[in-house]
Amino acid sequence: MRVELKGINKKTVKLASGTVATYYYAWKGGPRLSGKPGSPEFTASYLDAVSRKTRAADNSILWLLDRYQQSSDFIDKAKRTRADYLKQIHKIESEFGDFPLTALADRRTRGEFLAWRDRLAIKSRRQADYAFQVLALVMAWGKERGHIAVNPCERGGRLYQSKRADQVWSDADEAAFLAAAPGHLHLPLLLALWTGQRQGDLLRLPWSAYDGARIRLKQGKTGVRIVIPVGAPLKAALDATPRRSPLILTNMDGVPWTSDGFRSSWRKACIKAGIVDLTFHDLRGTAVTRLAVAGASVPEIAAITGHSLRDVSAILDSHYLSRDPALGEAAIRKLETRTKAPE
Question: Which UniProt keywords are listed (predicted)?
Fold first, then answer.
């Protein structure tokens, strides 16, 4: 008897070796199937996946994960973010799919989740933190909607500590890059420094988002809508740039960048400029730092970059400003002004 397999998702990818491989999944976002289509192994893996999903009663973590993936909180995220989340969700399903929701209130549950993170950390602390973060996010979503009473993953902390505490682009770094990099890479640098936005959002930024005085955009990762007043140096650069595409940033041929193409060109330009320890992403933190040194408050910075107030404070507190001598200079100048004897 032939079994009809419904909903199978097929994905073809090009491997590093140059060969093309085809993978099959029980459904979009579902577990990967083993064996070749039509084989007993393939059918068995499909039926097992479907059976596991069917067994996801409303008292299991698998059910909660499925519900989260059907929510607008997940669907409205950027495509890349959803793909990254799904990788972590699959790890959670494998480990805790049949874990009963009623057991979340047990005081031992938090220890079980933390122990799982510790096992993942043997391979990668950063990925272990990411998996735990997604689990905590799903738990928080479930608690907010009344599916669960407690979130045992709250305030879990992090195992991975970034070593990029002092990775801020200096004025000298900026000048060196502008002197060595080709002209079509100057505008991405200025946009990042004057807006504090992520690479992906800037590469997708259309000319229609710029009205001559402000840039309006919706961040792909968070969905946050922001309006950024355009500073004079950035305005001059934008107004002088030919509009050869609907998108602002293009390569030397006037064609919108692909993510990989931009990263490759940016890396080569940095090497040519002698900049080896800084990344494009560091420009986002640099923008936060420069705004703070200029006297901007945390809410003012958040309004421009789209960070939460807490994230801005964390960046200023632990990653950048603790080593920025300009803050000390600014503080002393303010103190001198405050204590200056009246004439």
Answer: DNA integration, DNA recombination, DNA-binding
